[in-house]
Amino acid sequence: MTTTELAAAEIPAHVPLHLVQNYDLWAEIAAAGVDGYQRAAAIHQETPPIFYVPRLGYLPGAWVPRRAEDLRRILQDTDTFCNAAIPFAQMLGENWQLIPLEIDPPHHAKYRALVNALFSPKRVEELAQSVRDHAAQLIDRFAARGYADFNEDFANWYPTLIFLRLMRWPTEEAATFVRWTHTMTKSMDMQEVAGAVMQVRDYLRARIAERRKTPGDDFTGYLISSQVDGRPLTDDEVFGFCFLVFLGGLDTVASSLGLHFMHLARNPEQQADLRAHPEKIPQAVEELLRAYSIVNMRRVVTRDVQFGDAPMRAGDFVLISTELGNLDPEVFASPAQVDFNRPDASLHMAFAYGPHRCVGSHLARRELAIAIELWLKKIPPFRMADKPIQLRTGGVFSVDGLRLEWDPVPGGAA
Amino acid sequence: MKILVKTDACVGHAQCHRAAPTLFPLDDSGYNTLAEVIQVPPGQEEAARRGVRACPERILTIVEDEAPASP
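Above: the input entities. Below: the structure tokens describing the complete assembly.
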């Protein structure tokens, strides 16, 4: 039974009707609210391995493979399933690309190599102390108050401050960046979204121009002095890198944090377990990333291909729904259950599979683990306030309206 | 025991390294591309299996030593 059936959706003629689920997958999951991920897990019991949905929000219909194995094969085969452009450049009538995300192999590797070194596990380790400092300062602002509006007081700021630190841009710009990110990812008004994209573009372009004039060893300076195919990067390429790091690092970390902290607030015994055993936090983060995956992206089919039971045609869209892949009962036993001792949690695809694996995954893991560690250290047991919250679905899933509360400790804890 | 690594299919999840850092060293990019065959020192078989199981791309294969031929 579904709550969001579509009235009379158009199904392309080559799609067999028995493979159609007549709902918008995103609306279907969002309608279940805080239990959205339970709803997503149940979809595995109701659907063929690859089904077709006639619509996804404002996007057209797409194939939806729900098995992790199929999703892995698709993401590893970038010849047959190429990256569908994110329409930010088109929205402005421009033609730069997000690098390296929107470039597929064989050209992908040489661009990717440039940023891999900046986000390797070793480099992330060097950033850990400043990540810790930013988290601690934010928490200290509200610890004694007894509550926090999670996104507004913490989650939106934390990755933004780390991004600015990484780029070596002034942290005083954080409020401006938080506003831009919020508009770009949450606004339903395309004019407003385009306006924010333009402001971010102008800011990044100005910083790049500045670095061209005055060389420096920051992120932009590194890209400006780098080469591909024996030539320096163009301004569009440097911009493509910077814009992707901006897009990829801010909203995704904030959104994951919201879902993870909602879980800890709703499950006091697991919260207590991590308080007593902070050494379990990295493993808990893997399980939370698995159970609350947030990213949905699309691939375009490049040639007619029979994939399992699905007769795909060139030009069809394929949804990569990381939450479905990570709730696949063939890989994860009792997938809807969050179990911090699950031995194989790190097989999850929260950061995707294949050559486009999230380049920031190691930094993201660190940020998430440090956030939980310092919250549990500085804040007494916290719970959800009696306030409605909303699950948002789409390209990045998130929760809105999450307020956490606790019995304040006079003078602040720790 | 040894481990075969499809180095050209490594995309840098680094979960093998997380499970067994000394058995699975990473290159400067954070990828497991330093050797296509990793010899597992005696006593580290269990760590090796953990590292292989942790690979989300499934590009690591265990090759058990053949039992010594009987004389």
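Note for the figure: Chain A has a mean pLDDT of 92.
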